[in-house]
Amino acid sequence: MSTALILIDIQNDYFPGGRMELVNSLEAAGAAARLLDCFRKASWPVYHIRHISTKPAASFFLPGRPRQPSCHP
Questions:
Q1: What is residue 62's predicted lDDT score, i.e. its pLDDT?
Q2: Are 50 and 13 in contact (CB under 8 A)?
Q3: N or C: which end of the chain has fewer CB within 10 A?
Q4: What is the pLDDT of residues 28-42, one digit of tens each?
Q5: How many angstroms separate the CA atoms of 4 and 73, rounded?
């Protein structure tokens, strides 16, 4: 199969109250959740990519933060 879903950086820092809040992040997470559900039901491959900053002066994507958004749509 040549089809897979790749979800990248759906992390707390992008959601309301996060350190780098993005516009429409809740809507984007909802769309990602719907796609994820379809892929899982079809038993198609899913890959989750999570960036973590290791730089001493980093202000977001810090190690030890929760993996999933705390605000689900």
A1: 80
A2: no
A3: N
A4: 999 999 999 999 999
A5: 23
